[in-house]
Design a protein that fits this description.
By secondary structure, this protein is an alpha/beta fold. The protein has a single domain, classed as 3-Layer(aba) Sandwich (Rossmann fold), CATH 3.40.50.360. The protein is built from six helices and six strands, in the order αβαβαβαβαββα. Strands 1, 2, 3, 4, 5 and 6 form a six-stranded parallel β-sheet that branches. Helix 4 links the parallel strand 3 and strand 4. The protein is globular and about 45 Å long. The N terminus is likely disordered.
Length: 196
């Protein structure tokens, strides 16, 4: 009887120690991919249909040694969509509707790592294309520096600046520049003055 009691007691003791041992394990650490990166990088995000804005954006990215992200519409713009002479072309219809938000094909991976985002776009009917509104509303920009830059056939960036001010909640929105009227040296000097 003592022998059976000893065996049962030994088995019970092993069970208790095994159970206690598993609860005393170290807490699970974050996987390497989950570790928070400091927000110390600069991103140049650009939307370009004809290549003109892309060229300017890539020059800015090179000057800033920044990452780049192309804002690609889920539904590409055709030449007919951009024919401003036609009243109901897609670009005109979108620009007349302040609530229009064309869908974007992809998202920035880990936007938290960027302390500043330069957003480059063409001016459409005196303002930023509505896809830019989609872009800024897709992310939490709180605490980030946002710098709008544009290309244009004649309009300035003032209306876009004003519109983005209301859309970039919590961000430090800088006054933008129209790049295609500045020399590379002027653009570089302006970027340096921003102290990004």
């Amino acid at each position: 009887m003592k022998k059976i009691f000893s065996i049962v007691l030994a088995a019970l003791t092993m069970f208790v120690f095994t159970a206690c041992g598993s609860s005393a394990e170290k807490p699970v650490e974050k996987a390497a991919s989950q570790v928070d990166e400091p927000a110390d990088k600069i991103l140049v995000a650009y939307f370009s249909c004809t290549g003109r804005t892309k060229k300017a954006a890539l020059e800015v990215a090179e000057m800033l040694k920044a990452d780049t992200f192309e804002i690609v519409p889920a539904q590409a713009y055709t030449p007919d969509d951009l024919n401003y002479q036609v009243e109901n072309c897609r670009a005109n219809v979108e620009q007349k509707d302040s609530a229009a938000r064309p869908e974007i094909k992809s998202r920035i991976e880990n936007p938290a790592r960027y302390k500043a985002i330069v957003i480059a776009f063409p001016i459409w009917w005196g303002a930023e294309p509505r896809i830019i509104d989609t872009f800024v509303e897709s992310y939490d920009l709180t605490g980030k520096t946002i710098v709008p830059v544009c290309t244009s056939g004649g309009s300035d960036i003032m209306t876009a600046d004003k519109n983005l001010q209301s859309l970039c909640k919590g961000a430090d929105l800088r006054i933008g520049k129209r790049l295609d009227i500045l020399s590379k040296d002027e653009i570089k000097a302006w970027l340096d003055s921003l102290k990004l």
